[in-house]
Amino acid sequence: MSRVVKELMSTDCVTATLKDNVYELAVLMRDHDIGFVPIVEGKKLIGIVTDRDLVIRGYAEKHSGSTAVSDVMTDEVKTIDAGTSGDEAARIMASHQIRRLPVVENGNLVGIVSIGDLAVREIFVDEAGQALSSISEQGTGETHAYH
Question: Tens of pLDDT along 6-20?
Fold first, then answer.
């Protein structure tokens, strides 16, 4: 019998609001060693910001640290319900090439499930591994490493 996301997700989510700015998000990510911050109004999920968003939509666009969260956040967020099975969560992650899924109930953020949550708990390791592999291989063009 498969476990549901509610049993696997993290519930101690670090969040931010539209009142925060890019610098404050970067500090949250550094201080909590995370790369993903849900943006909420009260408990309602309205978007997410990843460390990649900060770089691509923020600093690489020459935005300052005082830039509004809304300028860098993704507001069309794929979410799941707490009752979703772990294997279905892994399939969604793989098909959308994402590493973390916000878990919502009635639009309110109740947790986050990550590929690590699926793999670390040795639940659906094959699906989580396939999802991670698929996400890691998303670039099909030539890549360059600059050091």
Answer: 999 999 999 999 999
Position 113, amino acid = V
Element (DSSP H or E) covering residue 113:
strand 108-114
Tokens 């700015």 identify what position? 21
**Tell me: the pLDDT tens digits for 72-94?**
999 999 999 999 999 899 999 99
Q: Which residue from 43, 18, 22, 14 is spatially nearest to 112, judged by alpha carbons?
A: 14
Place of tokens 């030539």: 142
The torsion defined by the Cα of 51, 56, 57 and 60, in degrees rounded to 10, comes to 120
Match 């670039």 to its residue by tokens: 139
d(CA 105, CA 111): 10
Q: How far apart are CA 140 and CA 47, in angstroms?
A: 28
Q: Is 99 exposed, middle or buried (0-12, 13-18, 19+ CB in 10 A)?
A: middle
